[in-house]
Amino acid sequence: MPEGPEIRRAADRLAAAVAGQTVLRAQFAFPRLQRFEAELVGSRILSITPRGKALLTAFDNGWTLYSHNQLYGVWKVALPGQRPDSTRSLRVALETARAAILLYSASDIELWRSDEIEAHPFLQGLGPDVLDPALDVEAVSARLQSPAFCGRALGALLLDQGFLAGMGNYLRAEVLFAARLHPALRPRDLDATQTSALAQALLTIPRHSYATRGIEPTPGMRADYLAHEGERFRFRVFKREGQPCEHCGTPIARIASQSRPLFLCPHCQPSRPPQ
Ligand SMILES: [Zn+2]
């Protein structure tokens, strides 16, 4: 399951291929969407933006394509008129003079008026996005301390897209390790220093991953995402059970939290709340 940084990089690739260009051909597999094919031809693609695990493709004629990949959907970029060899079923094709972007296998696909898209039930349920540059430590700290979230265990809270969108399982483990917090703790168990450290980690770790994980930074990457840490993102605890903690040498442990594996240092992330 891709997490916020991977989804945003995938969106960046699609946008680099077609954003700003005019749609010459639009194709939808579902009959309920085929009336939009003629509507979109001749429009310009304004932006391709992830919102949680959904993707919004905005056109300059007032329509926005909402797509959610669920578990199986995948976007690909191809040359105009070309279709990659695939046993998957093609659900959406948008072609410009330069490229085609192709959505395979997904079924959660809708067209909305752009000025109404924020009313979409999925978007309504999302918290602020950890990769939104406007989101800051103060806002995340306030959210942690709010009545809706302060009583929930961090292991559950950090997977809840209604708390912060863009988080996921590897980010959860890495954020808790960076803040040295056990997943059973609740925000209301934390002192001010711990709350601040957690809020900071909830922003810097996803942003660092987005900017550097698995790829070389490119000139287009946001400079402020790179500034705080020059090195490439790597896992400190995720899938490292049995290996020594880089701070204290204690073997990293693997536990289950919300039916998902979670990795932590039993020494650096003690389960007892502070007295
Ligand atoms: Zn440790």
What do you see in this structure?
The protein folds into two domains: 4-124, N-terminal domain of MutM-like DNA repair proteins (Alpha-Beta Barrel), CATH 3.20.190; 137-264, Helicase, Ruva Protein, domain 3, CATH 1.10.8.50. Helices cover 27% and strands 20% of the residues. The chain contains eight helices and ten strands. A hairpin with a 3-residue loop joins strand 3 (54-59) and strand 4. The longest helix has 21 residues, at 192-212. The model has no long low-confidence stretch (mean pLDDT 92).
Which properties best describe this structure?
275 residues, alpha+beta, Helicase, Ruva Protein, domain 3, 2 domains
Please provide a brief summary of the model.
The chain is of the alpha+beta class and 275 residues long. Helix content is 27%, strand content 20%.
Number of domains: 2
- Spatial ordering of strands, largest sheet: 1-6-7-5
Identify the CATH class of the largest domain: Mainly Alpha
Radius of gyration: 21 Å
**What molecules are bound to this protein?**
zinc ion
Q: Quaternary state, please?
A: single chain
In CATH, the topology of the largest domain is named Helicase, Ruva Protein, domain 3
Q: Counting H and I runs of at least 4 residues, what is the number of helices?
A: 8
Terminal-residue CA separation: 37 Å
